[in-house]
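Hi Q.,

Before the meeting this afternoon, I wanted you to have the P1T prediction in hand. No need to reply - just skim if you have a minute. The sequence and ligand are here:
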Amino acid sequence: MKFETRAIHVGEKPNLKEGGSGDVAMPIHLASTYARKEVDHPTGGYEYSRTDNPTRNALQMRLAALEGAKYGLAFASGLGAETTLFLSLVKTGDHVIAFDDLYGGTRRLFSRVFRERFGVEISYVDARVPEAVEKSIRKNTVLVWLETPTNPLLKLCDIRAISEIARRRDIPVVVDNTFMSPYFQQPLSLGADIVMHSTTKYLNGHSDSVGGALMLSNQAIYEKLKFTQNAAGAILSPFESYLILRGAKTLAVRMREHEKNALAIARFLESHKAVNKVIYPGLECHPQHDLAKKQMSGFGGMLSFELDADLKTAKRFVESLKYFAVAESLGGVESLIELPALMTHASVPPEERRKIGLNDGLIRISAGIEHLDDLREDLENAFKAIR
Ligand code: P1T
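Predicted structure with the ligand bound:
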C-alpha cells in the first residue's frame, strides 16, 4: 500500500460485521472503562482506557504504518513521548548523546529534568559530524538522540552513518522526525531504532491539538515503552487521537504544498538585499544540501533567516505581517513566524545558543499552505515597514 493510501486507510476500516455501523471515520471512544461478561475476559481485550483505547489504537496503527514501523504509541504531547522514552530506557548514571541543536523544550527536559534531577549524563554534540558522535560514546552510553533537520537551525545529521556507529555498540538511536514528517523522511529505513514525533505539528496539521508519538519495530523496546505508557500515564486522549487520525489523511497533500511555499519563500528571501542569510535544506547554498537530497525525499516547510538589522528591527518586521501569525509551534496549514531566541528557544541559556550559532536576530518561518502570492506580498510589505 502506498503512503497516501496508508494515511487514509490503515486503522480506519469500516466495521461491516453484524451489529457494526459501517462508519467510514473512526468513532471517538470516550468510555474510560469497558464492561465484560466474564471476569477473566476483557471485551475485545479492552480493560481501561489509559491502558488501551480503540480510537488511540487506530491512530497508533496509522502512525506505525506511516513510518514503516511495527508499533506505534501515542502520548499527550511530544515531550510526553520523550519523557516516557527516557523513563523506559534511561536510568540514573546512564549517558545519553544528543544533537547540540534541538527544540528548546527537548533540551530543557534533558538538561533541567533528566540531568539535574535524575543524574543522567548528557553530552550535546555536533552530530553533523558522525565521528563526533562516535568519539562521545562512553561505556555507559545507552541512547543517541537525533533531531534532523534541527529546530531552528535546520542542521542535518547522517542517520544511516550514525545508526551504523551506534548499532556496533548496541546503542539505540532515536530520531525526532517532527520537521520532515514521515512523508519526507523515514528514519527507520535508514537504520534508526525509534522515531519520535510531536504530532502537534505536521501529522495533525491544523494547529488545534497537542500530541506526541513513538514508532518502532523492535519488540523488546516496544514492550518497555508500552509498559511505561500505561504505568506513567501520559496518554493521548480519544478526542485528540481522532483529530490526528483526521489530520494525517491529508499529510501527503499538505506536505507537498508546505514545501512548495517554503522553497519559494526561501528563494524570495535569498534574493532580498535586507536579508543576510537564509537557511533551508532545499537551497543549493545549504551546507548539507547533498545529504538532504540523499536522506530526505523533500525539504519540508520550515526555514530560518537573518535580517541585516538589529533585534528591534527584526521584532518590528515580524509584528508587521498580516498572514504570518507571530506564534510558537509549526506544521499547521497557516503560516507562522517567530524569533527562537525570545520564544521557542528562550529556555536554552544564551551562551549555549551562541555556541551552536543561534543568533538573537534569527527568524523562523513555518510556511503554511496559503496562496504564495499573498505570503510574498505580506513579506514585501513587512520589508517596506522596516525601511
Ligand atoms: O510541543 P510538543 O508536542 O510537546 O512537542 C515538543 C517538540 C519536540 N520536537 C520538536 C522538533 C518540536 O518542534 C517540538 C515542539 N516545538 C515547538 C513548539 C516549536 O515551536 O518549535
